[in-house]
């Protein structure tokens, strides 16, 4: 499989914020990178690979809001070193003012994790299984933020409030507003039926969770001994029932690893947790996207509406999969 293409910056790069931050963090002067790959960029975070010329060391520099960066710091400094899983070498943490901070890691593998690849899914199943089984016994992990159902109920309610706030946006068409109202109504129904989700999680032990629903920041590194999984972006890490971590891994591989720790857990239990994980993941994504409804042009707003349409449909499917009338979600198309 070839390396994933990213936007790349070339030329004199000493001006770049990631280079300046890494230079300020290092003990001595640092040669500017040959080029910079933009792995991820949004209004709240950005991840860059600083690729060294020749035999130099390449670095991943991630800038995010301080609360999330502080969670990542805790994971890299206090959690991952105690778990039997592969991880990129942690280089350090540096505050960037009062609201943002940098995390520096060794450059991860070039190959993005592909949930459609059976080999990758098996690798991830074993990796996540080792994290969950060992993490459940790690005393320091209980200090992580709550990652159970209450986290996602909070995200649901926050998303719904934001959606209601932006329904007065004059850029929205009548159809857009109607579709957003249906989404808000379905979130109401999900809120009313929340006890079903809590019941679906009952009886499963809490453990360390990564919390990145789509494993967008997972990489695969090829070694002489085989493939290694490397996970970046731990700002959603927490302590809770494993749900979202299971949605894109091979469950048979996962079960083979965790059964000695949780011998009573069956494939049917994992499938139920996967469905709950899809619901939780879609709610987190809707909460992340919903503030963009404040955009003031149709051009800026349309991608957000399209994304919400897709997430709403996926949330509907997850509700139907759980069954038993737990969710009265109907889905909606957000038209222009």
Short characterization:
The protein is built from nine helices and eleven strands. It is an alpha+beta fold and 336 residues long. The chain folds into two domains: 7-107, Phosphorylase Kinase, domain 1 (2-Layer Sandwich); 118-322, Aminoglycoside phosphotransferase (APH), C-terminal lobe (Aminoglycoside 3'-phosphotransferase, Chain: A, domain 2), CATH 3.90.1200.10.
Q: What is the fold's blueprint, element by element?
A:
Blueprint: E1 7-10, H1 17-25, E2 35-41, E3 46-51, E4 59-65, H2 66-79, E5 90-96, E6 100-106, E7 111-112, H3 118-135, H4 149-166, H5 174-192, H6 194-201, E8 207-209, E9 218-223, E10 226-231, E11 238-240, H7 251-258, H8 267-289, H9 298-322
Antiparallel strand pairs: 1-2, 2-3, 3-4, 4-6, 5-6, 7-9, 8-11, 9-10
Helix pairs in contact: 3-7, 4-5, 4-8, 8-9
Low-confidence stretches: 328-336
Quote the average pLDDT: 88
Q: Could you name the CATH homologous superfamily of the largest domain?
A: Aminoglycoside phosphotransferase (APH), C-terminal lobe
Q: Alpha-carbon distance between the termini?
A: 38 Å
Task: Note the main sheet.
Answer: 6 strands, antiparallel
Strand order of the largest sheet: 1-2-3-4-6-5
Q: Which series of helices and strands comes N to C? A: EHEEEHEEEHHHHEEEEHHH
Structure class: alpha+beta
Shape: globular
Helix content: 40-55%
How many E-type strands?
11
Rg on CA atoms, Å: 21 Å
Oligomer: single chain
What fraction of residues sit in β-strands?
15-25%
Q: How many structural units, i.e. domains?
A: 2
């Amino acid at each position: 499989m070839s390396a994933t293409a990213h936007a790349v910056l070339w030329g004199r790069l000493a001006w770049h914020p990631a280079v300046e931050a890494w230079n300020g963090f290092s003990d001595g002067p640092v040669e500017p990178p040959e080029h910079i790959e933009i792995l991820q960029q949004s209004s709240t975070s950005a991840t860059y690979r600083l690729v060294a010329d020749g035999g130099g060391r390449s670095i991943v520099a991630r800038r995010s809001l301080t609360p999330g960066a502080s969670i990542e710091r805790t994971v890299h400094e206090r959690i991952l070193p105690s778990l039997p899983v592969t991880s990129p070498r942690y280089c350090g943490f540096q505050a960037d003012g009062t609201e943002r901070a940098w995390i520096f890691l060794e450059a991860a593998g070039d190959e993005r994790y592909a949930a459609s690849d059976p080999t990758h899914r098996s690798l991830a199943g074993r990796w996540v299984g080792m994290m969950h089984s060992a993490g459940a016994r790690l005393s320091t992990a209980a200090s992580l933020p709550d990652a159970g159902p209450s986290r996602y109920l909070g995200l649901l309610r926050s998303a719904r409030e934001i959606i209601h706030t932006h329904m007065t946006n004059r850029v929205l068409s009548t159809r857009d507003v109607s579709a957003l109202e249906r989404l808000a109504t379905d979130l109401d129904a999900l809120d009313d039926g929340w006890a079903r989700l809590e019941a679906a999680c009952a009886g499963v032990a809490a453990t360390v969770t990564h919390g990145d629903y789509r494993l967008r920041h997972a990489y695969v590194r090829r070694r002489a001994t085989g493939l290694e999984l490397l996970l970046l972006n731990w700002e959603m890490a927490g302590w809770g029932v494993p749900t979202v971590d299971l949605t894109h891994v091979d469950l048979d591989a996962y079960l083979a690893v965790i059964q000695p720790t949780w011998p009573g857990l069956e494939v049917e239990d994992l499938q139920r947790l996967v469905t709950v994980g899809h619901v939780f993941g879609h709610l987190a994504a809707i909460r992340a996207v919903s503030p963009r409804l404040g955009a003031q042009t149709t051009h800026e707003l349309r991608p957000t509406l399209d994304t919400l349409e897709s997430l709403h449909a996926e949330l509907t499917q997850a509700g139907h999969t759980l069954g038993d009338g737990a969710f009265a979600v109907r889905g909606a198309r957000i038209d222009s």
